[in-house]
Amino acid sequence: MLKDRLWNELQEGYRQFLLSYPYEIMVTIHFGKMRFREETANKVLKQFMTKVAKYSKTQIACIGIYNILKSPHAHLLIFGKKGTLRSLLKKDIDKLWRYGSVHINPNTDEGAAFYVATNVTPHLQDRYELFFYNLRMLKKHRMEMFGNGKRFHSTQCS
Q1: Of the candidates 20, 7, 18, 80, which has an alpha carbon nearest to the alpha carbon of residue 49?
Q2: What ranges make up the beta strands (E) of the chain?
Q3: What are phi and psi of 72, to 5 degrees?
Q4: How many whole angstroms separate alpha carbon 19 and alpha carbon 155?
Q5: Contact 133, 49 (CB under 8 A)
Q6: For residue 143, with 0-12 CB atoms within 10 Å meaning exposed, 13-18 middle and 19 or more buried, which class applies?
Q7: Smallest Cα–Cα separation from 63: which of 149, 130, 12, 140?
Q8: What phi, psi does 29 have (nearest 5°)?
Q9: Residue 59 belongs to what H/E stretch?
Q10: What pTM, to 2 d.p., does this model score?
Q11: CA dihedral for 102, 97, 127, 61, sign (positive or negative)
Q12: Which CATH architecture has domain 2-146?
């Protein structure tokens, strides 16, 4: 069926895009009982990422998705400039997130990128939004990987 094939191609495109970054950890955070509008959720996620960067004492970048409708939560794929984020523990992240529960997993395979790619594509019940943190570092990594001829475009998906 064409719809299924296009959906799978879209998921595969997102997966390949996500795999082009050297993610060290995947952090899943729940917003608890808090209800956010999209702008507020973006602001809260950026504040959280800034705290993670300060706590880990390195420059970090992130691409993730979040859902603010049903069961509000976010999945964040994070990498650091110095490659030291794998030492972060759940208790460290718990100190930095104040709205709900936190789960942290080291990125050891393609599972995190596959999961995020599967969930960023349209669902009937949920609406996921893409989230970017530190676009300068994300762009720099893309330039180093693909050369100066290619341009990185950030987009919002709904």
Answers
A1: 80
A2: 25-30, 60-67, 73-80, 102-106, 128-133
A3: -55, 125
A4: 17
A5: yes
A6: middle
A7: 130
A8: -120, 140
A9: none
A10: 0.80
A11: negative
A12: 2-Layer Sandwich (3.30)
Do the Cβ atoms of 81 and 137 come closer than 8 Å?
yes
Cα-Cα-Cα-Cα dihedral sign, residues 140, 146, 149, 151: negative
3-state secondary structure of 25: strand
Tokens of 93: 């992240």
Q: What is the largest CA-CA distance in the chain?
A: 49
Q: What residue type is 74 in one-letter code?
A: A
- The pair of structure tokens assigned to 46 is 């950026």
Residue-level pLDDT, tens digit, the chain, 158 residues: 444 554 678 888 888 888 888 899 999 998 877 776 777 888 889 999 999 999 989 899 999 888 777 778 889 999 998 767 878 888 888 889 888 888 888 887 888 888 888 776 665 455 677 889 999 999 888 777 655 544 444 443 33
Token duo for residue 110: 């393609």
Q: Which residue shows structure tokens 């180093």? A: 144
> What are residue 129's phi and psi, to 5 degrees?
-120, 145
